[in-house]
Design a protein that fits this description.
Length: 158
């Protein structure tokens, strides 16, 4: 059986948060804060999350998909490597995702933070190739939108 062609995709998500750029960056870069909005998600069990936030460092998230998904009990692993960090301004990382041990995507993620009079604008550019069995660009974009909503919800407490 021949592999299916890869599906390349780019999307941009923008969010405006009523919090300082420093606070938003802390929620992206501190393991305890990122865990709250990124790893501790409804519908998934057994989440493990570790982050070594530095250039050359990595973040890894392992979860078991919940009963409300088509992949109940299957392990989803996201492994991210940090390539460029400008404190309070930018994070560039590359990530792979596997589902049940099979690679489903490789992505380049650029997050930019811009100070505004009312807080911070977050601009996320997600460039990826989706492989066989992947969730696809629409689902991935939806997932990131949900995550950035969760990020916004924890900022007052961060």
């Amino acid at each position: 059986m021949e592999p299916q062609p890869v599906l390349p995709s780019t999307f941009v998500i923008e969010r405006r948060y009523p919090a300082s750029r420093e606070r938003v960056f802390a929620a992206l870069s501190r393991e305890d804060q990122k865990r709250r909005w990124y790893a501790d998600r409804d519908g998934r069990e057994g989440t493990e999350f570790e982050m070594d936030f530095r250039v050359g460092g990595r973040s890894i998230s392992r979860t078991r998909m919940g009963a409300d998904t088509p992949f109940e009990g299957v392990e989803l692993v996201s492994e991210e490597y940090f390539h460029n960090i400008v404190p309070d301004r930018r994070i560039v990382s590359a990530a792979t995702m596997t589902l049940g041990g099979r690679p489903i995507s490789v992505a380049l993620l650029t997050i930019e933070l811009v100070a505004t009079d009312s807080g911070t604008d977050l601009i996320c550019t997600h460039q990826a190739v989706f492989l066989e069995g992947a969730d696809g660009p629409e689902m991935r974009e939806h997932g990131w939108r949900v995550l950035f909503d969760r990020l916004g919800a924890i900022l007052p407490e961060a």
